[in-house]
Amino acid sequence: MLRRLLPTVCRTWLVPRTTITAVRNTSGSVYEPDYLESLKPKFPQYESLNVQIKGYDYPQLESYQRFLHGLAEYLELDVSDCYALPPQQTQVQRLRPNSTVIESEYKLTTYERNLQLNNVDAPVYPQFLRIAQAALPEGVSLQVQEHTDDCEERRYVPDKELLDLKSELERMGGATPTKKK
After folding, report:
1. What percent of the chain has pLDDT over 90?
2. Which intervals hold domain Small ribosomal subunit protein uS10 (predicted)?
C-alpha cells in the first residue's frame, strides 16, 4: 500500500516546486516586493544636463530659449531651472593693414542663457539635440554638458561690498577668536 501512495506523492510534490521556481525567476529578489522593479526607469538616464546658449542678439537668444523650453516640455523632459548669466563685454579693434593704427573699434556684448534638465532618458536626448540644432539661429552657439558645481557657482554674482569688507578685515589682522570662560 505504501508503494501505491509514494508515486502520487512524488508527482504532486514536483508540480508545485516547478511553479515556485518560475515565480522566483520573475521577481528580482525573495525579500523585495515586485512593484519596486516597475518603479525603475526603462532606459538609462542622464542625471542633470545644462543646455547653454550664447549669442550677441538679445531678443533672438530669448526667443530661442523659449523655444527650447517648450520643446523640452513637449518631449516631457524635466526642466528644473532656466536662468540668465550677466552679459560679458568684449572690445574689438580693427587695425589698418600693415600698421598699428586703429581703424575702427567695436564693443560686443555676449548674452548667455541656461536650461537645466533633470533625469533625461537616453533615447529622448538625441531627439531633443537634433531638433535644437536644426532650429539653431544664426549667431547663436549651443553647448550641452553635465551639471557640475562650477556651473552652479558661475550663476551667482559675488557681492562686491562684502568682498571689500572681507579684504579690509584681513588687512587689519583678521578676526580674533574669542574664548568663552
Report:
1. 40
2. 50-145
CATH of 48-157, one of 1.20.120.1200, 3.30.70.1140, 3.30.70.600, 3.40.605.10: 3.30.70.600
CA angle 112, 87, 152 (to 5 degrees): 55
CA-closest candidate to residue 79, choices 115, 125, 123? 115
129-136, long-range: CB < 8 A, 24+ apart: 131/71, 132/51, 132/68, 132/71, 135/64, 135/67, 136/64
Give residue-wise pLDDT tens across range 55-66. Answer: 999 999 999 999
CB proximity list for 157: less than 8 A, separation 6 or greater: 86
* Rounded distance between C-alpha atoms, residue 90 and residue 121, angstroms: 38
The Cα 19–Cα 24 span in angstroms is 9
181's enclosing H/E stretch is none
Q: Where are the domains of the chain?
A: 48-157
Q: Is 140 helix (H, G, I), strand (E, B) or coil?
A: strand
Strand, coil or helix: 159:
coil
pLDDT tens profile 125-138? 999 999 999 999 99
